[in-house]
Design a protein that fits this description.
With 394 residues, this protein is mainly beta. It is built from five helices and 20 strands. Strands 1, 2, 3, 4, 5, 6, 7, 8, 9, 10 and 11 form an eleven-stranded antiparallel β-sheet that branches.
């Protein structure tokens, strides 16, 4: 009898370990078997933790040089400031330094009263980076004036006419720092969904990047073609550094927004939020990043609607629903209205599109607005009708 009991028990243990936990909300990532989830969680928590290396939050306000051993070609030091208001107006600017600063992706666009304006020179190629510490290129510059205070200036072409801008961005909430705030269990489940091999883990080790995001107030003026636009918006700043190979990304969504007033969400009084599911090709098919931030606290968004349900045919919907969940909290549903005009950026030798537009939504009864960004790879089967916007070398 004892051998029979031991045998049955062993079979039950094996079945439990290799079975997949039942999904209760249908949100992604769901993970793999219980055993694979546990192993992935262990690997995630054993990841790089050295506070003295390039992954430190002290790098959030400075240009970060290419870390030793990282591929220069796909190293990315990217800076974003953006904002939106309840009237349907939006603004976003980005400087992306690649290949040790020899290539720069330069974005400056907005929508005002239904009219879009955008810079004309969107890519800069140069033999060397003339100012490795400066956050500037092509007439666009970001300057830190003090703790949480930034000046944004631009002088160049907008819609084919001379333009200029002078803006201030001031921090208004706690800062998200990806190594600290991303949910390790969610990351582990995304890893557990993938087929494992030596090659897989080598690819995963190469995809090494850090991101900070922080809510704030954006104000100032933009002038072009005899027009003067005054901005008073809520938005975020974003700084990411590390490896970013556009060709490795299949698609992603990035919905970032400010609430009209502080609102209870997932146990904190929230002011700003971001939700971003990503299909990172051969590394993570369904990883979720994001955060909820108040004055002094940040918690992660760990799970969200599977992207296969939103724009997976390459058609970006005007109206769509997202569910998201933070650890130990119930899912929250939001209905998003994405409004024209949109802005399309073509990168990676015209093989990847980043498409941005104003969005309005409601969270737990409070209205919010921001920018809804969709990214699609032509290399991986998304042959969208890419806009004629060109990334022309400067």
């Amino acid at each position: 009898m004892a051998p029979l009991i031991i045998g049955v028990s062993a079979i039950c243990i094996v079945l439990v370990l290799f079975s997949r936990p039942r999904s209760r909300q249908g949100l992604a990532p769901e993970g793999g078997s219980r055993l694979k989830n546990a192993l992935a969680l262990l690997l995630t928590r054993l990841g790089p933790k050295n506070p003295d290396d390039w992954r430190t939050p002290q790098n959030s306000d400075v240009r970060v040089p290419v870390p030793e051993g990282m591929d220069e070609k796909n190293y990315n030091d990217s800076w974003v400031f953006q904002g939106a208001d309840a009237g349907g107006n939006a603004f976003l600017t980005r400087l992306g330094f690649r290949n040790a600063g020899r290539e720069v992706e330069l974005w400056f666009w907005g929508s005002h009263n239904g009219e879009r304006y955008a810079n004309d020179q969107r890519s800069i190629l140069r033999e060397t980076d003339p100012d490795p510490d400066g956050i500037r290129a092509g007439g666009l510059a970001y300057e830190k004036l003090g703790e949480g205070l930034w000046k944004i200036t631009y002088e160049g072409s907008l819609n084919g006419s001379p333009g200029k801008a002078e803006l201030l961005w001031e921090a208004d909430a706690a800062m998200f720092f990806s190594p600290e705030h991303m949910d390790s269990l969610s990351t582990a489940r995304a890893m557990a969904e993938m087929p494992w091999s030596r090659g897989y883990f080598e690819k995963m080790r190469r995809e090494n990047a850090v991101r900070i995001e922080q809510g704030g107030l954006l104000s100032g003026t933009i002038e072009y073609a005899g027009k003067k636009i005054t901005l008073n918006m809520k938005g975020i700043r974003d700084h990411s550094w590390g490896r970013r190979d556009w060709s490795s990304i299949t698609r992603y969504m990035w919905t970032v927004f400010a609430l009209d007033k502080p609102t209870e969400v997932a146990g904190i009084t929230a002011k700003y939020m971001a939700i971003s599911p990503v299909n990172y090709g051969d590394v993570f098919n369904r990883i979720t990043t994001g955060w909820i931030a108040g004055d002094n606290k940040v918690i992660p968004v760990a799970y969200t609607t599977d992207m296969a349900r939103v724009g997976n045919d390459g058609v970006i919907p005007e109206h769509y629903q997202l569910l998201f969940r933070s650890p130990a909290h119930k899912p929250v549903s939001i209905n998003i209205h994405r409004r024209q005009p949109e802005m399309s950026w073509i990168v990676s030798d015209r093989k990847f599109e980043v498409n941005e537009a104003w969005c309005g939504l409601e969270v737990n009864g409070t209205k919010a607005c921001g920018i809804a960004e969709f990214g699609y790879s032509a290399d991986r089967g998304y042959f969208r009708p890419f806009e004629s916007a060109k990334a022309e070398p400067g």
